[in-house]
Amino acid sequence: MTLIVFFRIIYKKLKWLVIFPTLLAGMVIYFTRNLAKEYQSSATIYTGLASGYSITDDGTEKVDYFKVNNAFDNLITTVKSRETIEEVSIKLLAQHLLLKEPDPNILSVKGFDELHNLLTPEEISKIVVRGNFAKTVEKLYAIKDSSNKNVVQNLLTSSLSPYATYKIIANTTVVRKSTSDMLELGYKTNDAGVCVHTLRFLIDAFSVRYKGIKGSETMNVVKYFEDQLKSTFSDLQTSENRLRDFGTNNNIINYYEQAKFVAESKEELSTNYYKEKMSFEAAQNAIARIEEKMNSYTDFVSANDELVKLRTELANVNYKITNAQIFNYGSDKIAEMQNQADNIKLQLKEKAREYYDFNNSIEWVPQEALLNEWLAKVVEMEESKGRLRVYDQRLKQYDGIYKEFAPLGSTISRLEREVGVQEKQYLSVLHGLNLAKLRQQSLEMSNTLKVVDNPYFPLQPLPSKRLLLVLVSFVAGFVLLLAYYVSSTLLNKTIQSPDKVEKIIGLPLLSALPEHKNINKKDVRIGEVQDNLMQQIINTIFIDLKKIDPGAKSYTIIVFSTKSNEGKSFFAELMVNKLSRIRNKVLYLHPITSKEHGKHLEPDNPKLLSYSYKVDEGIIDYKGIKDFIEQNQNQSPDMSEVSYNVLEIPRLNKYPIPANLVESAHYSIMVVHAGKSWTSADQFLLKNYLKLSAGKISVLLNHVAPDSLESIYGEIPKKRSIFRRKLKEVLGGEKY
What we know:
This protein has helices at residues 3-12, 14-31, 65-79, 82-97, 109-118, 121-127, 133-146, 151-157, 165-171, 192-249, 255-293, 296-303, 305-326, 331-355, 367-446, 466-491, 501-504, 526-548, 568-579, 625-629, 659-664, 680-692, 710-713, 722-730, and strands spanning 39-46, 172-176, 182-189, 450-453, 509-514, 555-560, 585-591, 608-613, 642-648, 667-673, 696-704. It has 736 residues and is an alpha/beta fold. The strands form two sheets. A seven-stranded parallel β-sheet has the order 5-11-10-6-9-7-8. Strands 2-3-1-4 form a four-stranded antiparallel β-sheet.
């Protein structure tokens, strides 16, 4: 919706937009004629929540504004809590019941009479303890708590009672003054004395409740941390005892040092083992290579049982020597075994020489050199074999040690982790306990609320809001009625303007014609607008027909609508009047369904041939224009001189469609009423028509409000005041 449309709505409905708010304002004036005067008092309280000193502040602590705002919210909630207001109401009631006569500083005559109208003298005598305010308050509490329905409960809840808690809450204001530590309390009522004393009772009530809440809060926290400290200390001792017992039972002094020593020893043994393995492999390969170079005597010596026996003895002795060296046997024992090994080596050497008495090998290498080298490698291999057997046994022993130490390590880690967790938890709880005690001490020192400005007795009533209520009612009435008119326009499902045609119907717009009814023709020149739009329509039709079939001598145009009272006969007659002025003759065929046909045709126009036809089921099978003429006419016109055949067919939702003629027509114009809604039934009928039609179809929007034609016509010619002209220029209209 544009601003121009918005102001048009205001202009059209201006009468009601003035009358309705005025009536509403008049009603407010009448009903507020006896509006009671109100008095207001206030008090200021220093809280110290934002900038007050705290024992936990070391001078570097920054102000947490979220925390401060939360503290003020808690304080304000405490002020307006139900029990706080209930206490104020009961104390106020007790004070008023103790009065024997009205006192302007406490309760006015009107308030005194209202109270004694709410309670009988017998009820007052049962409640009041004369001369004792505190006992009267206690008695009021006792009566209130005695049952769900009693005199005091009625006074605290009844809408007729000025002591109703919800009324006191509604009239109480609690705000923080800017970003300061000050809290401002305000209360307004129709009695100045009640206003002051209500604030005094309120300050006393919420101060005590707030201190009690903060104190109980820290006490509960301290008690909680003390209980948790005992529990966590017990858990810590249990975990430490479990770790100690595990080390004692498994002979562990320092698991990590022991595990490190075992790992390093095994690593050293593994290194020596693989070095010895390399020596053994080297000696074995060397023996194989030497034996290849030696002659068949080598195989004979190698196969000799005695020589093999000596080699076996030498290997055993070397194994014993290596074992003794690793396990640190005595030096005498090792020397004895070494002498035994040397004797076996000499025997082996002598035995070998008995079988190798030749000097050279087949490759001309001295036989004695090969034999000595072979013997040296054999001795080296047997020594390595013995040492490898010892290394294998020792490595297996280390595997057993690893199997024993592995589960011990995971268990110790778990127990140590458990002790660490318990210790951290204990320290955390201890830290929390210290903070809670500091917080408790800090609150005890700083939660005292101080009254900066005491409540004052209001001498003058507040300015009356009657004028404001009248103005608000007038503006509200104007806005509500305007909103109704605007929403009615926006929610209107009718097509209304040419801009919506293509979006709603889905067909191109031919043009539109203005509405004639309810239009002041002195202000709007409807005839001029209609003639100009009809000329636009004829121009568009002529251009479209030339594009469709430039060489045609005669064109067939069909005018139709989906339902009745769309204005298709009116449009068709205006169109044929215009077409008859272009060239040759125009044939106009219209159904006999209305008495209005021919009303707008030009009389005595020789170029306009008008015929009516009877609508029956037979027209669905008509082949051409002549079938419509010959239906009720004795003579047919000369069709050779006809340039335009304009056929108006009856509404689609009731009558049959001349299918053959629709299929062969050059142009179809659907007339749609702008003030009607386009429904799914209309869309369904249009789909059936589109199945038949091969020519172009356009929409003629009829009965359009003149102001809605500006999108296709331009500025509508009508009378306008200077103010309206200037306003329209400002809002984007054409300049006059």
